[in-house]
Write the structure tokens for this entry.
Amino acid sequence: MQGGSSGIGYGLKYQARCISDVRADTDHTSFLTGTLSLKEENEVHLIRLSSGGTELVCEGLFSHPNEIWDLASCPFDQRIFSTVYSTGESYGAAIWQIPELYGELNSPQLEKITSLGAHVGKIKCILWWPCGRHDKLISIDEENLFLWSLDMPKKAIQVQLQESAGLHNLSGGAWDPHDVNALAATSESSIQFWDLRTMMKTNLIERSHVRNVDYNPKKPHVIVTAEDESGICIWDIRKSKAPVQELPGHTHWTWAVRCNPEHEGLILSSGTDSTVNLWLASPFSRDELTSETLVDSPTRQPDPLLNSYSDYEDSVYGLAWSSREPWIFASLSYDGRRQRLDNVKLGYVSLEIALSWHSISIGCRSAFAFAEGRSDKSRFWVPVVLAIIHGHVITNKDFTSKIWRFSVLTYVHE
Amino acid sequence: MEVDDVPLDDKAKRMRDLLSSFYAPDPSASAPSFPATHASLDAINSASFDPDQYMNLLVQKSSLEGLLQRHVEMAAEIKNLDTDLQMLVYENYNKFISATDTIKRMKSKIVGMETNMEQLLDKIMSVQSRSDHVNTSLFEKREHVEKLHRTCNLLRKVQFIYDLPARLGKCIKSEAYADAVRFYTGAMPIFKAYGDSSFQDCKRASEEAIAIITKNLQGKLFSDSESIQARAEAAVLLKQLDFPVDSLRAKLLEKLEQSLVDLQLNVEDISSASVDSSDPSEQRNASMPIPSNAHEASVREFAEAICAYRVIFPDSDEQLTQLARDLVSKLFETTEQYVKNRISSADLLHVLGIIWTDVLLMDGVVHEAVLRDHCLEAARMVVKQYVANTFSHLLHDISDALTKAHIEQKDGVEKDSLQVALEASKKRVLQGSMDVLLDFRQLLDDNLELLAKIKDWIIDWVQGGFQDFFRELDNHFILLSGRNNSSSHDQVLAGLVLVLAQLSLFIEQTAIPRITEEIAASFSGGGIRGSEYGPAFVPGEICRIFRSAGEKFLHLYINIRTQRVSVLLKKRFTVLNWVKHKEPREVHMFVDLFLHELEAIGNEVKQILPQGVRRHRRTDSNGSTTSSRSNPLREEKLNRSNTQRARSQLLETHLAKLFKQKVEIFTKVEFNQESVVTMVVKLCLKSLQEFVRLQTFNRSGFQQIQLDIQFLRTPLRETVEDEAAIDFLLDEVIVAASERCLDPIPLEPPILDKLIQAKLAKTNEQNTISQ
């Protein structure tokens, strides 16, 4: 498996479930991760990709009082993050600040800004305002949704709005980056859409066993869900009857799904079958797809599964794209017992997959070959896309758009 | 002789030349003068003969003897020439004398002819005068005779007019309408000129008579009993009478159309008859010919009527063509309706045969309609529809077979209902396809000209039909399995999905090859669509579709089954507060439910899927060594498990084990019982592990999990194929639980044993009670 072998590893001492990209850190590619250990002392690791890009360096190691079930980095301040933790019997959530001179201290302590105390039930996750500097936060527990207003200088936080989700236990959610008043929350039997101004449910997709949800950052109204049975589903929330596309790929539960922050259609999913799958979802809607298949039924659709990274020892629960270098992602395997191995893995969208489309309706033969180019300076595996087109004139609209889609993957890394 | 001849000829020729030169007007022209230098002995005959020179030459050249001889010769020659000359002069003189005599005689005979000529002239003059006299004397009488003759004619005509009504009446009586019409039309000009005055009565009377005639003629025209000639004559007569024939024609046409509708009904009778008769097949042969004969007769009648009409109104091809086309279209419309019912190709053939005979009949009558082409076109549509319908019926059958089983299963009456359903639907697929092919074979084999012409089309349709049919079937399967509508998964019976999986496999591996073979045998060719498209039936593609469908369904089945267990597990883990769990007293009942589910799966699977190659027998021996090695190991460890050290050692063993081998948990599922069950068990255990990982346990909670898992170990090992993986997963669950436990102290093995034995005893007891 190319992605695994070319990926970089980092070992946490204990089992861990959550990893988060530090979006506010524009100078480095860094991730925050927190361990999940019931009995030992838990840690928060600040991991940074070394300037050479060859290894993951622990930039900061902070002890955390409890096992961490969820961790989210603040989008505007790289030193601030939130955690959801469990004491074994009860749950809590807090916002932390990394001390400024942590490099010089021997055992730096995290500075607790405030804790989100209004929760009673099992807290599931904390969501930061999706982009830019804003004081709004959302926290979700099994029964309630909270909208918080964070007052940073005063280090205080207030519940702005609270709403009970009803009968079905919530399990997580995602904040719409296109419409900051919209929120998608997953529950046992459905995906609920909330309007944060009124705290009312606006829409509902009946779908059971949804584990995770993510908005497509490039295209409004499109969400991706991870499910127990059929891998990931892509939905247009305006058409809630059936998914636009289903991408079954994991043999067991699909735990997490993440859309690439830059490149539309590039989706990562991780599952309890110890694999991470990289997908390229077709940008076409279902109607266009069917019309295309009608025109050209014998030729197969290109496999949307670009790569399957299966070099994990245990279930992969944590998954994060780097927003600074969007062809890098971090995956976090639960594998805590095998300390000499790395549970944090950096994968690259290393596309050595050769796709070939035979004659899209005009008899034009084309082959796309993805080659990995290796830059000596950075020793990065950089995907270089070579589009070799045999044939004549490309008149087909779809075809050109496909070429376009692949051309966005072309990076020349100096 | 020849020696004599030549000199004789020479001689005669010279003679003649000499004579001619003698008579010639210009002797110099015939004998050009020779110059003296050219003088020779031969020049004696030429005009420029010079005697002196000749002499000199002769003297010089010849000897004396020669000269003497020459002298004798010349003397003889001169003598001869003199006699000839004398003869010629004498002959000329004789002729001159006889000519003078003749002229003298003519002169004497011409005298006295003048008087005879004058006498003749006198006589001719007298004859002329006499003839003129006779002519003038007869002229008057001749004038009179001519006048009398004219009057007589007129009188006869008047007489005819006066007699006309009576004569017409007589004609009517004797039905000599043709004469009547001839008389009447003859009288027409007179009636037109004098009808208002002198012949008023006459005209009225004859008009009345003619009205009767017209009526009779119309009657005759419309009566079917009359012969065609008679009717045609009537039409012609009516036309002569200036009767508005167009309206008549329209009426007749209407009548024909009326009969067309009647014919239509007949066709329906036939189809209904054949439908009726198709049920009791013995009656069929007896009952079929009657309606068909009746139909044929009526069509023949109709054809005759059209023929008659054509004779009567010769310039009405267009309407007739239309009519004939209407007939064919209507026939095919009925057939189309008929085809919509479920009919065998024999019935279709029968109907088509009838129609074709009709068409041939009609075609004989109306050439212009190009009925054959029209019919061909229509037949093509019908046959195409028939092919399509047959396939849709087949699809319906198969789906019926599946859903019926579905319902039966719901009732829970039959235990082997899945197997029954599978067998039934297998049979339907194969037998149905074969029947369909046989049916179409019949179409092809029939030597009906109509079908022979569209044979290639039929082949293409059949091939394309199969292609579409299987695609449709695949879609239908997916619809049945409810994949498109995920929310209804729970309603879809897992068994049905399993049946679909196996059925897809069957179609791919057995049905398609058979059908391909059959098609190759009897439906090769075609190619109307053009060779660039290739054959319409692409078995490879269908196989591919069904292979992937089969796998999909199998996975779906596993998914559905796993989902149920998953729900069970979810309830088990989320409802309870594991941190405050009480001490384990017995194996939890979710284990029973789980095993029950597994049993149900086993039941379903046993009915549908084949038994796999018992591969795990081999691994069994291997597995038993490993498990027998690992089990005492663990128990040994468990014996010392009260201490913290032992606990960590337990973990270490697991770690050691993990390092040894990475067990491939999720292998490819195969189409056999063990593989599917194993897969379900694996997925369930993995789910169990994941659920455990999401909880936090106190000691009792952990012990409960340990107990449950320990209990599961034996029955699971019995059911599955891959013991090593199952063992691994079971251990994983315990490890996960211990990791999530605040105080992971395992149960003592004796207690564990005791509880398990108690549980086993209890289940046995229950079993005996229920039995």
